[in-house]
């Protein structure tokens, strides 16, 4: 097999599976593992993929800062937020992850609703200033890119709370690799919150589907549902329905 053919196959597998194990591909193609690793090194040097231990993952483009992200797909995120807010009932304890889409969710919650909102995002907490909801703001080291708290003290506080719903923010969602994000500490916090919640939902804009970021949070099967743009084509969502995840168009 020619080098160009191997590289095309590697790119196709990364797009399909969200990851690639060098040894498995070498065995499948009856090639040496060194050959595949060399291809991965060269493709990584050209900015075509991300090398990880034992293989590779697709690149996800770096996100702009928080203020800039607030201006992206604002109308769509508002619709997603309103749909997600309809899932919340009086008396529940919910956790709102950081992120611009969940900011719209916070704004969409009825002001008179009697709920408890837990968050580690000062940005989210500030949106609830005039709501009847009780707001619990968890502290820690501020990860400024996402405007959320991370670290040991954040984890300790999360482990003391049981949640009805967690609205999880992610940078990528893939049927095989699962839900992922771009920061190791942030991923650990999200993993802990998933464990404390009876149900977890994701609000996702279309570009996040089929992508994978470096740090995995949990599998897609952990989700109760995904809130998506109502105009999104059904084909990219079929794999998630097959995994038993409810798709909630906004």
From TrEMBL:
<keyword id="KW-0805">Transcription regulation</keyword>
<protein>
    <submittedName>
        <fullName>DeoR family transcriptional regulator</fullName>
    </submittedName>
</protein>
<dbReference type="Pfam" id="PF08220">
    <property type="entry name" value="HTH_DeoR"/>
</dbReference>
<dbReference type="InterPro" id="IPR001034">
    <property type="entry name" value="DeoR_HTH"/>
</dbReference>
<dbReference type="InterPro" id="IPR050313">
    <property type="entry name" value="Carb_Metab_HTH_regulators"/>
</dbReference>
<dbReference type="Pfam" id="PF00455">
    <property type="entry name" value="DeoRC"/>
</dbReference>
<dbReference type="GO" id="GO:0003677">
    <property type="term" value="F:DNA binding"/>
</dbReference>
<feature type="domain" description="HTH deoR-type">
    <location>
        <begin position="3"/>
        <end position="58"/>
    </location>
</feature>
<keyword id="KW-0804">Transcription</keyword>
<dbReference type="InterPro" id="IPR014036">
    <property type="entry name" value="DeoR-like_C"/>
</dbReference>
<dbReference type="InterPro" id="IPR018356">
    <property type="entry name" value="Tscrpt_reg_HTH_DeoR_CS"/>
</dbReference>
<dbReference type="GO" id="GO:0003700">
    <property type="term" value="F:DNA-binding transcription factor activity"/>
</dbReference>
<dbReference type="InterPro" id="IPR037171">
    <property type="entry name" value="NagB/RpiA_transferase-like"/>
</dbReference>
<keyword id="KW-0238">DNA-binding</keyword>
<dbReference type="InterPro" id="IPR036390">
    <property type="entry name" value="WH_DNA-bd_sf"/>
</dbReference>
<keyword id="KW-0678">Repressor</keyword>
């Amino acid at each position: 097999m020619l080098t160009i053919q191997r590289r095309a196959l590697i790119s196709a597998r990364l797009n399909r599976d969200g990851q690639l194990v060098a040894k498995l591909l070498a065995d499948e193609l009856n090639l040496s593992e060194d050959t595949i690793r060399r291809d991965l090194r060269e493709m990584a040097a050209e900015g075509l993929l991300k090398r990880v231990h034992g293989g590779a993952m697709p690149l996800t483009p770096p996100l702009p800062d928080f203020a800039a992200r607030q201006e992206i797909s604002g109308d769509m995120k508002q619709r997603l937020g309103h749909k997600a807010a309809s899932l919340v009932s009086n008396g529940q304890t919910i956790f709102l992850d950081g992120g611009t889409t969940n900011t719209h969710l916070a704004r969409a919650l009825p002001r008179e609703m009697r709920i408890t909102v837990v968050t580690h995002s000062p940005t989210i907490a500030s949106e609830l200033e005039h709501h009847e909801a009780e707001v619990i703001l968890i502290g820690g080291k501020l990860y400024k890119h996402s405007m959320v708290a991370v670290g040991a003290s954040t984890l300790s506080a999360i482990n003391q709370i049981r949640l009805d719903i967690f609205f999880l923010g992610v940078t990528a969602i893939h049927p095989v690799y699962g839900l992922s994000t771009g920061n190791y500490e942030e991923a650990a916090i999200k993993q802990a919150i998933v464990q404390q919640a009876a149900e977890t939902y994701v609000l996702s804009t279309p570009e996040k589907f089929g992508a994978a970021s470096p740090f995995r949070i949990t599998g897609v099967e952990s989700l109760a549902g995904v809130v998506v743009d109502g105009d999104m084509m059904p084909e990219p969502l079929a794999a998630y329905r097959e995994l038993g995840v409810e798709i909630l168009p906004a």
